[in-house]
Structure formats: C-alpha cells, structure tokens
Amino acid sequence: MDQRIQRRLLLQGGFAIGASLLLPRARACEFFATSMRVLHPWTRASAPGADGVALYMKFDEVTQSDRLVGVRTPVAEGARMAGPAFAGKARQDIDFAIARGSTAEFTEDGTHVRLTGLRQPIEVGRAYPLQLVFEKGGTINAQFEVDFPAIDGEGHGAHAGHTHSENKAQGAEHTD
User: Fold this and answer.
1) Domain definitions of the chain by residue range
2) Which of 3, 23, 63, 114 could form a disulfide with 82 if both were Cys (CB 3.0 to 4.6 A apart)?
3) What percentage of the chain exceeds 90 in pLDDT?
C-alpha cells in the first residue's frame, strides 16, 4: 500500500477517535428531537389482562417551543393523554405543549401518556420501540423501558435513585 494512503488512513482514524472523545455521549435512555432531548421513556409492567399502561418521560434542553402530537408503538393500538387534568374529559388526544427553555415531565402522579389496546403483555426488563411525533420537530424513534409493577402505588423498582417527579411539567402546558 502506498505510504500516502497509509498516512491518510492513519490521520482519518486518529481524527475519528479524537472527535468521538470530544463529542458528548448519548446514554441509552436519551433521545433527541431537533429542538429538545427526551429522557428515559419508561412504564411499569402490565398486569395480567391489562388493556393499557402509563408512559412516563422527561423533556429538557428545549431550544424551540414544540408540541407532542402523537405517540406510536407496535405494542399498543393507540395512545391518549391521562392524569388528573384529563379526568372526565371526552377527548384526550395527544397534545402536549413544551415551552422553549423549559423542562417538562410525564409523571406517575401527574400528566402522562396512556398506551391503550395493548397487543401483548408489557414485561419487566424489556424495551419496546416508540415513536414520538412533534408538531415542529418531526418524528423521533425511541424506545421505552419497563420497570417492576408498583406495589400499592409505592416504589420505583429498578428506578430507585431516579426522581421521576422532579420538575413536574414546569413550563409545560397541555390543551384539551
């Protein structure tokens, strides 16, 4: 092999390694839209015969106001907004605004997404494909992880140490 080609390959390899050390690393539970980061989508394992599960996640590093307008996964027929603000409402379509510069979160005791019409049981320790559709940011492919079922509404199982309820939907709004 020509010495120039060897040198070029060596320089390209060195550049690639150097660039990878400088760039921030994405963790397995981080997903990026054009205008925000989506952190740790997760749910609890479904109970036997359950028709749906609640889905939680956090949105931060929001550089442009956007709106979550769709949630799709092959393991459920549909998705809707849920939580105390949606109790008794006839329509609960996915429609969640996230303001620029804010942090918003879907939590167990607040606003969240409910996956409906489960096509299969949602099992502990698994990860399932998920698509989040944003009005301006387009569609991002993600996945959600599954935690242990809640015991009397308490505990976070494998999520001990995570704080899923901090900064509950700060700066976020939803429309009915």
Assistant:
1) 27-174
2) 114
3) 61
